[in-house]
Amino acid sequence: MENYPFDLDVLLSPTALIFIAVLIAGVRSSCGPGLTLALALLKSGLYFVYYGFLFDGTFTFLDDWTYLEGVEHLLDQEAGLFELFGSEFLFLVANGDHVVYYLYNALAMSWFGRGYYAPVALNIVLTVVIARLGVQLLVSEGLISQRQRSLFFAFIVLHPDILAWSTVMNGKDILVFLLHVLLLMSVAWFLRGQRWSALVLAAASSFVLLFLRFYVPILFGVALVTAVVVTSPQRGIKLVLPALFLLGIALSRFGIEGIEYAIHAVREDFVNPLYGFFRFVLTPIPFNTEEAYAFLDLPAILHWLLLPAVVLGIWKLYHRNTAFSHFLIVYTILFVGLYAVYGELQGPRHRVQLDFAWATFQFLGLSLMLCTRRLSKLPNPGDSNAAVRRISAISRK
Q1: Cα–Cα distance for residue pair 185/202, rounded to 1 Å
Q2: Which of 212, 22, 12 is nearest to 111 (CA)?
Q3: What is the chain's alpha carbon radius of gyration, rounded to the nearest angstrom?
Q4: Lowest-pLDDT range, 138-142, 241-245, 329-333, 362-366?
Q5: pLDDT tens sequence across 127-156
Q6: Is pTM, for the whole model, over 0.85?
């Protein structure tokens, strides 16, 4: 059994990597020197303080330690990291599931040492990558302005839910989260006519997801066809046959038995969709969590407080009236709909992969609130109809 907290010297290299990653991504996202340095110090400092002084294993789960123990066996048995690829022993340790995350943990532990802190550091770096890619995606789609680049980057880097899940525990959810963002980028490229680039990125991301959460690429495909059919029926009809072909390839990987098992699992744990929706969206209830989930109490409060901003953000996104804005809404509805009817997936952990869409709704809603507030303070704002027109104009920008 390791001694906790961890020795400060083993935390220096991962802390430095987090610090440098935020600096580079912050500069690329047009953050000023002061903001970039502050974000880097906060992100890396929180990690260093938590694992150097506070960590005692309270906020951890069985799966987390299973990954670490399995990887230690792998590293003890194999000569090098690259020999693990395709290794029969790897699949034996992982029981055929989540092989990619075992490799991910092995990579982290080969870089930073054998300890819980190692894969967590890599997860934190991934959230910085997500923030950078997210800024690029929303700016290119016209959902945020150039002036909002630095604000959105800081919003993702310090987002309470993302910060909690990526810093406190070692889970595959952050890696799945990144793959969601990559698939969102591939959809954006596809809708802009960059078909081959979109196909390559989507294929690579989907392949990895087959060993993490296989249903994600399938739902992305359904969301894309649905969104295109709704916004452009003629264009959507052309997608139906290729989509069915790709869906058939994806489903063939699991065979008839796998499909029957998935259907049986949903039926066994099927819940009332209305109840399931509110349970999934509102879980956890602040200060009503189990001990292992207590680190989510503060993020849960902020999550609840920002629900009005989410509604406004969806409303603003809908009025943007672009192919990608419609897709983002349909994509969110489909994933939330699946979790609403399947009780096993209604914990807060499965909501992490949707945090980019959720954070986008929150950010757009907060921006709309602030713009509306500024308009209300202008001298001689005119009659109520003029105010309504101004708010509608903002929602389309």
Answers
A1: 9
A2: 12
A3: 22
A4: 241-245
A5: 999 999 999 999 999 999 999 999 999 999
A6: yes
Strand blocks (E) in the chain = none
The residue ranking higher by pLDDT, 105 or 309, is 309
**Cα 362 from Cα 296, distance rounded (Å):** 18
pLDDT-derived band of residue 330, with 50, 70 and 90 as boundaries? very high
Res. 299: pLDDT tops 70: yes
Question: What amino acid occupies position 179?
Answer: L
The Cα–Cα gap between 365 and 141 comes to 17
Please give the Cα distance from 334 to 151 (Å, whole number).
28
Burial bucket for residue 34 (CB in 10 Å: 0-12, 13-18, 19+): exposed
Q: Measure the CA–CA gap between 10 and 209, rounded to whole angstroms.
A: 31
The rounded distance, in Å, linking the Cα atoms of 368 and 371 is 5
Amino acid occupying residue 383 = D
pLDDT at 240: 63
Identity at 234, one-letter amino acid code: Q
Q: Which residues contact 268 (CB under 8 A, 6 or more apart)?
A: none
Average pLDDT, the chain: 84
292 vs 5, 54, 352, CA distance in Å?
Answer: 17, 15, 17
Residue whose token pair is 């290119």: 140
Name every residue whose Cβ is closer than 8 Å to that of residue 372 and which is 6 or more positions away in sequence: 391, 394
What is the model's pLDDT at position 334? 93
For residue 308, is pLDDT > 90? Answer: yes
The answer on pLDDT for 1 being more than 50 is no
Are 206 and 183 in contact by the 8 Å Cβ rule? The answer is yes
What is the identity of the amino acid at 126?
Answer: L
> Which of 86, 326, 333 shows the shortest CA–CA distance to 219?
333
Q: How far apart are CA 209 and CA 252, in angstroms?
A: 15
Give the C-alpha separation, 88 to 313, whole Å: 48
Beta carbons within 8 Å of 223's beta carbon, 6+ residues apart? 327, 330, 331, 334
Burial class (CB in 10 A: 0-12, 13-18, 19+), 53: exposed
Count the Cβ atoms, other than its own, within 10 Å of residue 23.
19
List the one residue out of 343, 348, 355, 328 whose CA is nearest residue 282.
348
Tokens of 271: 């819940």
